[in-house]
Amino acid sequence: LSRDFDDDNDPGRVRVAVRLRPRNAEDLSEADFADCVELHPELKRLKLRKNNWNSESYRFDEVFTETASQKRVYEVVAKPVVESVLSGYNGTVMAYGQTGTGKTFTLGKLGKDDASERGIMVRAVEDIVANISLASDTVEVSYLQLYMESIQDLLAPEKTNIPINEDPKTGEVSLPGAVTVKVRDLDHFLQLLQIGEANRHAANTKLNTESSRSHAILMVYIRRSVPEIVEDDINSQNMKAKGNFPLVRKSKLLIVDLAGSERLDKSGSEGILLEEAKFINLSLTSLGKCINALAENSPHVPTRDSKLTRLLRDSFGGSARTSLIITIGPSSRHHSETTSTIMFGQRAMKIVNMVKLKEE
Ligand code: ADP
């Protein structure tokens, strides 16, 4: 499966998949329900409809129908990124789409009662834990929320306004103020994710906002000792004594559940002034600008304009591997949002990055 998703000559291109949510009760209650999209998964294409079917079809790396399983979505979209993170590159998996189209279902679903429902966050950590040696390597996670350009720690919600640190030499982005927890096993991670979800819910209730206006960001840090060097050197004790430590390879995976892509003035957010709406969406707008700049190969990518794009600086573009999953609903009522979501995905399809291995 994943081979197909990878099957071209530019391993660093951003991979973009589309996932259609099944019809929900609201869709089913529409007397005049009409499909907004026509999927051709075998061709990896879809068509949009307004009054008539638009004759143009849009190609993606993968098109998932409403029956696609969580397992298949993970294997196609996220597994290649996880594999590259395991071998030392940074990577990002992001979900973009209108509120209610399945971003959180795709990324954050815990699947407590039914493991087949588990989303990408759980499956990625499961895969990572299964493929490293917890005796010599470490997996640590931070879980954050970004709302109104303030980063809050979802594992320690009293920590707000966490600053972003960028190493001037290496360009490495870090959040020294955020809690990082060493993952013991998958159950431990599930507990952390659940705590994060509860804190996200509580924080949004307190702020009287909806989670759809904030971005949730899971950061998974992996440190692996490079085995060749340790094994080759019989006198590694002596090396240590001389202060000559074995090499450690560091990489990180970001899984980003983006704020709803709908324009705020349409989402029933009464009382929000236009300026405030712009501020709430600053990170999303700025991500869009960066994607356009990268897609056009522009020499200037405005990553400094928002917290989200600053956080993504060393994990999106450059040497990092990225997958984007675009989520859409089936009803033509949301034609304009679905169209703009599809266009966002089409621009991201054009981003090509250079891949190189980095070692500490
Ligand atoms: P978003 O994060 O984009 O706002 P959610 O992930 O919360 O959307 O999804 C909205 C609702 O639709 C939830 O009840 C979710 O369980 C359901 N849903 C979304 N995608 C799917 C899917 N592929 N299969 C079954 N239910 C889904």
UniProtKB/TrEMBL annotation:
Where is the protein localized? Cytoplasm, Cytoskeleton
What family is reported?
Answer: Belongs to the TRAFAC class myosin-kinesin ATPase superfamily. Kinesin family. Ungrouped subfamily.
Name of the protein this chain belongs to: Kinesin motor domain-containing protein
Q: Which domain of life is it from?
A: Eukaryota
**Where ATP is bound, by residue?**
G97, Q98, T99, G100, T101, G102, K103, T104
Domain Kinesin motor positions: 13-351
